[in-house]
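Lab notebook, bench 4. Continuing the backlog of folding jobs that were queued last week. Each job is logged with the same field layout so the records can be merged later without manual cleanup. Today's entry covers Tubulin glycylase 3D, a 332-residue chain. Filled in by technician R.K.

JOB TYPE: sequence-to-structure
TARGET: Tubulin glycylase 3D
LENGTH: 332
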Amino acid sequence: MRSAQIALKTARHLSDWKRLNCCPQSTSVFICAGGYPDFTKAMVARGWFQNEDKESRFFDLKWAPASAIDHDHLLPNQAVNHFHGNREITTKVGLTLNLRSCLPLCSADPDSFYPRAYDLYDPLERADFALNFKFTKAQAILREFIRNIDSQAAMTFSSDVVSTAFKICLRLVTDPAEIMDCPQLAEALAMVSAEEWSLLEQVCLDDCTQRLEGALNAEDLHDFIQKRQVPTESMRERKNKEKRKEKDNQKLLTASEEKKRRKSKAKKSPSLQLPLCSPVSSFEGLKPEHLIAQVREVLEEMDSSNRCRPANTGEYGDVKFTTEEDDSDDGE
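JOB STATUS: finished
OUTPUT FIELD FOLLOWS
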């Protein structure tokens, strides 16, 4: 390191640096910053000379994180492993924002070839993602319902679930111009009510007979986005045990108190009492068949208008999540 500092002070050109560091003039020089021992080993095996001073300006090739490269002072014969401003296209956030900005400049719509993407650090985009997720799940429920009907499956979603999902998807194909005279209806087109979501969030798309448990609350979701540790069930249980030790006089809830608590919770959330599944045979008759016809019609209209992509029957569909930490620089 001392010889490198001396060379830095006295050398004016790469040839001077090579002479001061006993490097043959015909040998190429490289710098590797940020680790990458395999890269260093491969370069040495190819006969390159390593400059161990990561801040040195004397090199033919530098392999380092983008933040460690001074693009403004590179010489014409020097090569680095990052393009200047590469974050604009090599990070999820950068690529997403630039594709959106291209829409007014060309006829290509990014939504036609690029997965929906959201920057979860942006509160507005986080809200857009939450809303889009709810609309997507409503559509997935309807598609799975039609598959169950057509395949003559034994069970499918209940009429309450299907009707709620249908009402939500109907908003996607409703022309706002048709209801502009009614501001309340117009505003409702871009929302899913808390009561509607309290029902649909319990629906399991993989098995209609099962009820989804353990949904994240708003605080835990915020911690996930901010990369904070979210307490697991075992951690919560351990914390509760510690509290019980500190409060010796605290006792477990009695059976009657637990019953009252569940009754109160069910009263606050009527959707918890609604069935999530029912036999396919229950959709026989004039009214159920009319609902099936409405579902088919709204799905066909959604496909033709391309307002909402056909959703996967998985929980999340074709969605990409972006955060700044996901886009951290590396040496590749």
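OBSERVATION: Residues 123-150 form the longest helix (28 residues).
SIGNED: R.K.
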